[in-house]
Each structure stands twice: as structure tokens, then as C-alpha cells.
Prior knowledge:
The structure is a homodimer of 358-residue chains.
Chain A: H1 10-18, H2 28-39, E1 45-49, E2 52-56, E3 64-70, E4 83-87, E5 90-94, H3 98-114, E6 121-127, H4 138-145, E7 154-157, E8 165-167, E9 171-180, E10 184-185, H5 195-198, H6 200-208, E11 213-216, E12 219-222, E13 224-233, E14 238-239, E15 242-251, H7 257-267, E16 272-279, H8 289-298, E17 303-304, H9 311-316, E18 321-324, E19 338-340, H10 341-356
Parallel strand pairs in A: 3-6, 3-7, 7-18, 8-17
Antiparallel strand pairs in A: 1-2, 2-6, 4-5, 5-19, 8-18, 9-15, 9-16, 10-14, 11-12, 13-15
Helix pairs in contact in A: 1-3, 3-10, 8-10
Amino acid sequence: MPTLDLSATSVDLTRTICDIPSVSDDETRLADLIHEAVSVLPHLEVYRDGDTIVARTNGRRAQRVVIAGHIDTVPINGNVPTRDVQVDGESYIWGRGTVDMKAGVAVQLKLAAELTDPRVDITWMWYDHEEVDADLNGLTRLAATRPELFSADFAILGEPSNGQVEGGCNGNMRVIVRTRGVRAHSARAWIGENAIHSAAPILARLSEYRPREIEVEGLVYREGLNAVRINGGVAGNVIPDLCEVEVNYRFAPSRDAAEADRHVRDVFTGFDVDIVDLAVGARPGLDAALAQEFVAAVGAEPRPKYGWTDVARFSALGVPAVNYGPGDPHLAHHDEERVPIAQIEAVEQGLRAWLSGH
Amino acid sequence: MPTLDLSATSVDLTRTICDIPSVSDDETRLADLIHEAVSVLPHLEVYRDGDTIVARTNGRRAQRVVIAGHIDTVPINGNVPTRDVQVDGESYIWGRGTVDMKAGVAVQLKLAAELTDPRVDITWMWYDHEEVDADLNGLTRLAATRPELFSADFAILGEPSNGQVEGGCNGNMRVIVRTRGVRAHSARAWIGENAIHSAAPILARLSEYRPREIEVEGLVYREGLNAVRINGGVAGNVIPDLCEVEVNYRFAPSRDAAEADRHVRDVFTGFDVDIVDLAVGARPGLDAALAQEFVAAVGAEPRPKYGWTDVARFSALGVPAVNYGPGDPHLAHHDEERVPIAQIEAVEQGLRAWLSGH
């Protein structure tokens, strides 16, 4: 069994761990390697729960930071093993997981080994099952079994953010908007009531909807309200009695669950609305002193994070949290997923600069 | 093996043949019984093609009428064997096939045996696979192998028409109206283009559409334009790149295929429209002398037929054709399918009055 060499460059470490497939539910091999590699480091106290590995420095500092990254990926689609590619003169590592988010994990692993005496205590977390149902997420399990591990003054998630600091995240809600009608033979449509026709105002309101931009603690969050699925119909000669539109609402972290719910029900007044999923966002938390020092040290311009990430989990616990990792989030899950080598190096340097400065 | 007793009443014959299941593709047992029963009748010349039976009188009359009925049914749903039921003081035979259209076939079988010397020559046709794809229809096959059997001056389909004469039938067209967009993560919807939102005007036009009523040869045909299915979406967090609306257009028999096509494309101007199915209707043909005599003899008030039936097949061959059978078409395919006994008797008397009068 190969071992992970944490003294390799973060770029080489990225290649190595991307070439060890770890699609959600198949993380054990990579988790074993990480566990083995960090267990030999005397400055870290290591805890394992399933395929989630936690490694903590000794607790002599006044403040503690959680730095976390998930080790699973979405399914591979002919894009493992990785390849080195050049695009428009820039060098990339191409392949599944390079962006989301093994380059970030590689940087974290390297620094976990290297920084034996950081300026703040660090709780490193490498976890499983982030790309699937939240119920399965390694952090959900850990929060239930070892909640004290989440205690910290600040948290950094290594999610891809183009090497910039992306603060907080939008909330995420999915609802089903439903119309009902009465079935009839389509040769005698006037006997029935067409549920698909009744859905016309739902699509009209979505199409006319202008999403808001909302400033939260200095960052502007762009919201979104989108149909992601529509379904209706029985047969080619039957007037349909049901039409369902699944709508995804992405809402600013300044709104709580009740406000998000109210807003969606306002938009769809007159229609039956069922919530199927709801996760509030995370405030950027950039007003925390530690966050400001971090942003200054890494030399980044904070931006809002639009997608929902596990920062919300920390935010809900009162721990300010940001996303900071190499890779363009637009390429996450993409078959052409690839991370610029320069961004891996920049994030490594940024984190090192902040964590090692006393 | 039981034999069919064609001297029984048409009501008893209805019970008997409904209790012999003959869902499309499983008509052989019933076809065998019909074949056996009519083959012994000396006044009929019998021809069989698969499960379609044709029985013709001798050809001494100046005019010939086709009288046809399909022997298959839609699937049984706990409604065979038949039962005698009373609803609001009226006596019915309840069960699959009673309306669509074994009561009509029972009347035809009885009269085929009884009328040894009718006033016009008769070509009786009992055929398979009407309830499924037109390709499989017994008449499609017969028209290919024995087209001369369709030669006639008038045709009567025993399709349920509440014991009234329903002239011709509407045409039937199905199209897919399609919108395309660009996929994106729904957290960054502005990168993509939502194909479901783009379908808003399709539903709006359908919802606002007022179907026309068109008089053809004295009968008023009611048209209809209806979404029968809608489908779009990739996943709960992806902006959809495709939405398809399946639209069913029922159009008056005065319109040909080109006109129907033009009308649908006009309604959906600006959208991609694909025809998936198109069958023109049938003019009522009630101006034919034979048709007028028939209507007068059976004492019925002609009405338009809205659903597409095999009358269109005869109409396309230049043979005026009407629907005349017991049973309410609204109860066809219904789990509560049931035929009023009085209508079976009335249709039997109507047909006998006309066919036996010299």
C-alpha cells in the first residue's frame, strides 16, 4: 500500500490524491492514507470517525481555527487519472476532484505536516460524503458524536474560490409548486381541466422574476429563483390532472428560513407550495478580528459565495467561516474540471503566511 | 370450446363476448369463436386475416355498406366478468368492453346471422388491435392485403355514440413544442439560460387559446388544443437546458394535414415544433343519399364525433362513414364502463329497420 508523502509539493500531492478515486461512499482508501500520514505527526492529535479524519494541534494558543475539506468527489467520467494540460498559456492539472476539492485538501495536508507551531491552534478536518445527501455528510456525523471538535474562533473551508476569499454562502431552498385539474379524454377537453395550462402563471412569474442583490456585511449576495424541473401529463390523449414545478430559491444569508419561506409563498400566491429542502445560508463573518487578519494576510479581496457550502454549518454554530481554495467553482463537477497550478501554490502561500506569522 | 349462439339476444351476446377477455394482442380466442359462428352461415362469404374476420353478403344488391367493429379492448381493471347493474333506475351491463365496443359488435353479429337478405349488400368487419398503435390495427393490415374489401357506398362503425349517429370525426395531431437553454449550477443561474422559464409563453398561449367550433356539412365540430405532457429538468441544482411540451390538437374534418400543421405552427410562432403524430379527420358524409336514408331509418339526430375513429379510414377512401353504436363514449376506457341495455336494443332495432327494409 502506497503512503502519502506530505513533504511533496502541494501540486504533486494534488496529482497523487486525485489519482486515488474517492467518489462519495468510496472514500476509505484515501481516508486510510490520510489517517496513516497524519498519525505519525507528533504535533497533531488525531481522531477518526468513519472516513472523517480530525487532526488537532496541542491547544497552547489563545485562538483556534478549523480548516476543513471534503475528500469525496462526484462520479468520475473518464477524467481520472489526472493529466497536466495547458490552456491559454496557463498550466493546469486536469481531472475529477482537482477543483472540488482535492487541490484544497492537498494544500491542507501539506501545511498540517509542515506547521508544527502555528500562530493559532488548528483543527484540521478531512471528511467524507459531502457531495451527497446532507444526512450522510461526515461533518453531520461528527457534529453528533463529537460536537466539541467544532469549537473554534474561525473556520476556513477549502472549497474552490479561485484562490480568493469567498465569505459565507447563500441559503438554498427547494419547493414544489403544484397545480391540479381534472382528467378527461383530450378529444373532449372541455369536460376536464388542464393542470399544465393552469401552470402558465407559475412559469410567467418565474420568467419575469428579477432576483435581488443583497448586501450583507459588505458583500453583495445575488439571489436566484429558478424552475429546476417540471413534470405533468398522463398519456397523449388525456387532459392532465397534475403539474409539478420544482423551484430552487437561492437566498442571501441575511434571510432566515421563515423569510425565505414567506418570499417564495408570496411569489406563488394562489398556488399550492410544498417545501422539499431548506438550508439557510451563512453570513460572511468578515467582521470577526481573526477573519480580517486572515483576509489581510492572504492578500485577497473578499467576495460572496453563491453556492451553499459547509461554511453554513459553522456559521450556525456561531463560528465565522469563509471559503478559500484553488480552482474555479464553475468547473466543479464539470467533465473538464481542472485547477490552475499557480492557484494551488498561491493558496498554499496565503495559508502559510497567515498561519505561520507570529 | 364454447360456441357463440348468434340467435341469442344482442344483450346476452354482449354479456357473452365481454366475458371473453380480448385485450389488444389477445383477441384470438374471441376471433376464433366469431369465425366459427359466421362460417356456418350460408348467406355469407367469410375471409380471415389474423384476428380480423370479414363476412360479406352475396353481391346481388346495387349498393354495399361496410359495418365494422373492433373486438379488442383496453386492459381489464377488475371489471371482467360483466355484471348487471342499475343506475338511477336504468339497467346496464357493467364491465370492460361493454361500451368500447362489444355491445356494438354483439348487435352486428346478431344481425349478420339474421339478415340473410338485406336491402343493401353488407361487408361485416370485426377486427383486432384498434386500441393500440395504428400500425397494428387489423384494418391497416387488411387494407394492405385486401384493399378491394373496403369498396363500399357507405360505412357504419359501431363505436359508442349513445345510440345516436355521430358523423365523421375530428382530426388528431400531436406535436412537441421545445425550448432550449444552457445548463449551469443553480447557485449561479445567470451563467445559464432556463429552458423551463422560456416555456412560459407556450403555456400562456395554450391557456389563452379559445378553440374554434367549425360547421362541416351541417354538424358543428369542436376543436381543442391541449398540453398533454410537459417535461424538463436535470437535477435539483441545475438550470435546465431543455423543456418539452407535448400538445394535442383536435381539428375539424374540414382541415387537411397542411392546414392543421400551419395552425399549430402559427400558435407557437417562435418555438421549435415537431410533429409526432398526425391523422386527419373524416367529413360526416351525411349528404350521401344512403347516409340520409340511414339517418331517417334509425330515427337519430346526427351529431359530430369528436374523437378520432376508423371512420377516417373510410372517409379517406371516399366512402362516407358514420359512428353508430350503444354506449356513452365518456365511459369508454373508464373503470366504470357500462352500457345501457335499452341502447343495445335501440341500436339493434335501428340497424334492422334500415337494413331489412326493401
